[in-house]
Amino acid sequence: MSASSATAIKRSGIGTSGPGSDRLSAVAGQRHLRPVASPCHPRDHIDHFTDMDDALAAHIMVTAQRLARAARRVLRPLRMGYVVHGFGVAHAHLNVIAQHDPTDIISACHVDAPGGFTVTQDHLTPPTRVASEAMAARLCYALQ
Q: What domains can be seen in the chain, in order of their start residue?
């Protein structure tokens, strides 16, 4: 995601009030099959979500809730989901996911593959800067 997209989301007020507000960031524009909202993460490196102090963890959830409400208005998904999985990036973050289909959030327990399976993002193209900034602008507008 471009710096201007991050600045736009920050200017919207998301994550800028409450305990730990100076320690939180929310960004748009990741590799996904469909448009989603954003990961919310602490600015400082924290490896495990459970290593965060309670105030910061609560603030991340409240921020994610605000972002999910905006994303719901903009993207019109069936559901909004939240995922903390700890893989992909070695940094604690809460993913806010617009679920357009019941299979948009899955785990190995949902897959019937006797020979095993592989999950990869290699075939997903990151959004362009223009697309990322457009999504950030739409979310910022919805946050007002």
A: 3-104+116-143 (3.30.428.10)
Per-residue pLDDT tens for 58-104? 988 988 898 889 889 988 999 999 988 777 677 888 888 889 888 88
Residues contacting 123, CB < 8 A, separation 6+: none
The mean-pLDDT minimum among 28-37, 104-113, 123-132 falls in 28-37
